[in-house]
């Protein structure tokens, strides 16, 4: 493709509200253009990357006998009422009415549609198992659309649904999907981690998310230092507890222990972003005060704490005790009962910032508390796992954290939809049973962004070859010079038979071309310049600052 003919509106400046690096680079390199909040046009280079990601996904789905279909975007409300999700899904569901005032949604996901599709067809166990998948635009009226394609209101997803006669067949497909996802995310060049996840509102009880590791990620992953175990923080509870010898964590790691006075300092100390510090509470275990920071949304109750600390002798710390531990002024916590202590403690770290400016909707005394003056936390010990309902190795060791972008999820749905929507089959004994289901999603447009989050430098994107919009960037440095233009045209004619080539034939300065090339980020660049007359070009890889002179006869060997 000739760059003079393509549409790549690169930008010098990006809108200030673009926070995520991938969002900035997508705008800057002319890949996307915003149409409305969380809604984007994909320009030619983005479209090519999407095509390549989709193709990889398609190959891996077909490899495990997935069959491609395309289901409607416009979904009648009746189906969603059958499953109970017309109400349960809430404001994220985009709703509209047709001219006859019939209600519809714009599909955020397709469990209802696919269940209604198969319920009349898969009537016998002989037709099972089967896996259907599609690649399609989804709509979700996200509360906080942000970070460009990472959280859009309109985005592209591969979704797959499997149907089974029994659990073991579902297990097999789940396993196949898990491995297919491994291959997909490896092939697109992501550094990722599968994690045990919370099944949440969708129902079902077993699920993994595939997390691309990146600072901007909205999910926190907690992983074991001593085993392969990793989970979404929503699934695994971890508690921060002191070592019994009160050795500060950082000292164990031979780093000086800071005296932590602010939530930010605590977040820095723990190497997590501030909003990941969710709850804290102080309890007394065997007469020893323990400040636990709970990361995760589960309630922590006595029973859990007792089993965690392996003792019955556990109670909430009193107001005075907390003041002591926190180094707070006597009386500064105000009159609080145990329940309030918990609320107080729950919000403690998270609200420290609010406290400092005196802004908090809850009318507790601590409205006017001042962190540096009234509080003082010393962090000792380690994060350890508290887990529910999972068969886990006994010793998971210390818990470590990382931020992740959820690029995919595999899910054992069970019979939630088949039961509510009456999708049954006849088993070998001729008995009617609900179909057993699995569902499996990959965020195609989110994956594109996640790859950029991981593959870039200060100049622009650095595409992995597998999904790069083009493989080779051929640049005529000064096409006004006949010999350069001729050689460039000749090479373009040859190379495009073997590679996807983007040919910069524009009448722009070399500086503009190089800047754009860095931004666009194709893996290898072939520059036709001053030595064109001798048949010599310069070859440079995007991930390397060195360039090499190559005779055109050897070009193929160098590019291969
Ligand atoms: P999140 O937790 O980030 O909101 P989700 O769990 O709601 O995602 P799923 O229902 O599991 O998303 O959808 C399957 C995949 O679709 C996700 O793993 C993700 O890659 C992608 N996805 C979901 N919501 C969005 C969105 N708003 N924008 C872009 N991709 C999305
Ligand atoms: Mg969501
Ligand atoms: Mg999620
Ligand atoms: Mg999900």
From TrEMBL:
Its EC number is 6.1.1.15. It comes from the Bacteria. It is an enzyme of class 6 (ligase). Residues 257-277 form the HTH cro/C1-type domain. Keywords: Aminoacyl-tRNA synthetase, ATP-binding, Cytoplasm, Ligase, Nucleotide-binding, Protein biosynthesis. It is found in: Cytoplasm. PROSITE patterns: AA_TRNA_LIGASE_II (PS50862), HTH_CROC1 (PS50943). Its main location: cytoplasm. Residues 37-464 form the Aminoacyl-transfer RNA synthetases class-II family profile domain. It holds the Pfam family HGTP_anticodon. GO terms for molecular function: proline-tRNA ligase activity. The keyword Cytoplasm applies. Consists of three domains: the N-terminal catalytic domain, the editing domain and the C-terminal anticodon-binding domain. PANTHER family: MITOCHONDRIAL RIBOSOME PROTEIN L39/PROLYL-TRNA LIGASE FAMILY MEMBER, PROLINE--TRNA LIGASE. Homodimer. Catalyzes the attachment of proline to tRNA(Pro) in a two-step reaction: proline is first activated by ATP to form Pro-AMP and then transferred to the acceptor end of tRNA(Pro). As ProRS can inadvertently accommodate and process non-cognate amino acids such as alanine and cysteine, to avoid such errors it has two additional distinct editing activities against alanine. One activity is designated as 'pretransfer' editing and involves the tRNA(Pro)-independent hydrolysis of activated Ala-AMP. This is Proline--tRNA ligase. It comes from Mammaliicoccus vitulinus. The gene is proS.
